[in-house]
Design a protein that fits this description.
This protein is mainly α. The protein contains twelve helices and two strands. The chain has helices at residues 31-40, 54-61, 65-74, 92-95, 99-105, 123-126, 131-137, 162-173, 175-203, 206-222, 243-254, 266-286, and strands at residues 84-88, 116-120. A two-stranded parallel sheet has the order 1-2. Helix 11 (243-254) packs across helix 12 (266-286). The longest helix is centred in the middle third of the chain and has 29 residues, at 175-203. It is elongated and about 110 Å long.
Length: 287
């Protein structure tokens, strides 16, 4: 899913005589029903809880009702026997909040209630979000999912112009060679990653591995209802104190003049030395 594409239509000479291609056939939406949905639908606008960058701001600026209709229509095409779907959207952390509410309130949005939709964000975009979005929406943490290089053409779109059109064309005709090279690297990487994992697995205590597996099963089963449970995968590293915090700690320790000599800090000794030197100077002046 991508809400950043907009068609630039020319003004038709005879609007009443326009013919839609595949109107309502296959996975194409029907013109009349789609317009009725837009007339009825209303967007839920709220302050973004993610980083304040351009893509996330689109969650408030773009009419997400178009994406709702597109997703519902796509979920009805060749879906027999499919009970789980994974959607990728650059702003899924915001978009997915109200999707089911919009479906319930609309008479034009239809989707199989048994279908489990897992919202994700592509790896190329998720690193522009806040840190928590990585473990909650990156595909690295979905059991059984494969990874594809689906945005190979998009990596230069930030500065798309005539020169970039030529670059994209070169990328397109060289795509086969590039993908073959990346496949070989990925194949070799699997073996290397396997060896690294085996070393970690051997070093981890058995009781901890049992505990981690149990926590993972609970997390994977609860992620649809609450993406925040995926924070379990986040790296838990204690943040180092800042320079100001260290300075404040030294100053606080420096006030302990009455502490035992073995517990006095460097700042305390320096402060006491300066005070002693000042007292000596004062004594010399009086003598």
């Amino acid at each position: 899913m991508d809400g950043n594409f907009k068609a630039e239509h020319l003004h038709p000479i005879k609007p009443h005589d326009e013919v839609w291609i595949s109107n309502g056939l296959g996975f194409m939406v029907g013109k009349d029903r789609y317009k009725l949905n837009l007339a009825e639908a209303s967007d839920m606008v709220e302050k973004s809880s993610c980083n304040n960058h351009w893509a996330i701001n689109q969650a408030n600026a773009v009419r997400q009702m178009n994406m709702d209709y597109a997703l519902c229509e796509a979920a009805q095409h060749n879906m027999e026997g499919i009970t789980r779907a994974i959607t990728f959207y650059d702003i899924n952390c915001q978009y997915n909040k109200h999707f089911w509410d919009q479906v319930d309130q609309s008479q034009f949005l239809e989707i199989v209630l048994e279908l489990i939709i897992i919202p994700e964000i592509g790896l190329w975009h998720v690193h522009g979000h806040q840190d928590s979005c990585y473990v909650r929406y990156a595909l690295n943490f979905i059991e059984g999912i494969g990874q594809i290089d689906r945005e190979i053409m998009e990596t230069l779109w930030e500065c798309l112009d005539y020169q970039m059109n030529d670059s994209n064309f070169c990328k397109m005709i060289c795509m086969k060679r590039t993908l073959c090279r990346k496949y070989k690297l990925a194949k070799n990487g699997i073996a290397e990653s396997g060896r690294a994992f085996d070393r970690l697995d051997e070093a981890a205590p058995g009781h901890l591995k049992t505990e981690w597996l149990a926590e993972e099963r609970v997390t994977q089963s609860s992620r649809i209802r609450d993406p925040a449970v995926m924070d379990l995968y986040d790296i838990n590293i204690k943040k180092a104190p800042s320079k100001k915090e260290i300075e404040l700690s030294l100053l606080e320790d420096g006030n302990a003049h009455n502490a035992a000599p073995s517990h006095r800090s460097v700042a305390t000794w320096i402060s006491m030395g300066l005070a002693t030197e000042e007292a000596q100077i004062a004594l010399l002046i009086e003598i």
